[in-house]
Each structure stands twice: as C-alpha cells, then as structure tokens.
C-alpha cells in the first residue's frame, strides 16, 4: 500500500511516500510489515539528513569512492 506521509525531523516537516514492501511471510513468520519511506531530492529531506548525520555521510561517501576506485583499477 502506498500513501503520502509527512516526516518530522528536528522540528521540520518533509513530504514523503510510505510504501509497504512485500516479503516472504511464510519464511519470516515473526516479522511485522516492512515499510519504506521514499522521498525526492526536492523534498529537502536528503539535505536535512546529511546535515544531521555529517560524520556518517562523510564516512560512507569516502568508503563508496574507495570501492569505486578499486573497481576501475
């Protein structure tokens, strides 16, 4: 099921879409529903998350660049 959602982060609201993900309910009988929040760059949410998680973003960006460098070598 897809529906619109308002995400509140650090006192600011951002528009997003909530999407329930399908998964093998027989294989994972104890799992609750899996929900995914989707948003666009224009929503402002990615920028806010980068601001709040600067150290994690920098670390992950550096790791991704190193992996990409190894692939092209």
Shape: flat
Portion in strands: 25-35%
Major beta sheet, strand line-up: 1-2-3
What percent of residues adopt helix (DSSP H or I)? 25-40%
Per DSSP, the total helix count is: 2
Assign the structural class, choosing from mainly alpha, mainly beta, alpha/beta, alpha+beta, or little secondary structure.
alpha+beta
Computed over alpha carbons, the radius of gyration is: 17 Å
Distance between the termini: 43 Å
The overall average pLDDT, rounded, is 89
How can the largest sheet be summarized? 3 strands, antiparallel
How many DSSP E strands?
Answer: 3
- Helix and strand element order: EEEHH
Unreliable parts = none
Account of the protein in words:
The protein is α+β, with helices and mostly antiparallel strands. It is 37% helix and 32% strand. It has two helices and three strands, in the order βββαα. The chain has helices spanning 45-52, 54-72; strands spanning 2-9, 12-21, 34-38. A three-stranded antiparallel β-sheet has the order 1-2-3. The longest helix has 19 residues, at 54-72. The mean pLDDT is 89.
In short:
With 73 residues, this protein is of the alpha+beta class. The protein is built from two helices and three strands; from the N terminus they run E-E-E-H-H.
What characteristics describe this protein?
73 residues; alpha+beta; three-stranded antiparallel sheet; 2 helices; 3 strands; 37% helix; 32% strand; flat
List the helices and strands and how they pair.
Elements: E1 2-9, E2 12-21, E3 34-38, H1 45-52, H2 54-72
Antiparallel strand pairs: 1-2, 2-3
């Amino acid at each position: 099921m897809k529906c619109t959602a308002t995400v509140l982060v650090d006192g600011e609201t951002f528009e997003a879409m909530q999407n329930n993900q399908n998964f093998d309910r027989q294989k994972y009988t104890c799992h609750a529903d899996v929900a995914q929040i989707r948003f666009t760059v224009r929503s402002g949410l990615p920028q806010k998350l980068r601001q709040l998680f600067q150290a994690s973003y920098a670390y992950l960006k550096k790791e991704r660049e190193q992996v990409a460098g190894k692939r092209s070598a």
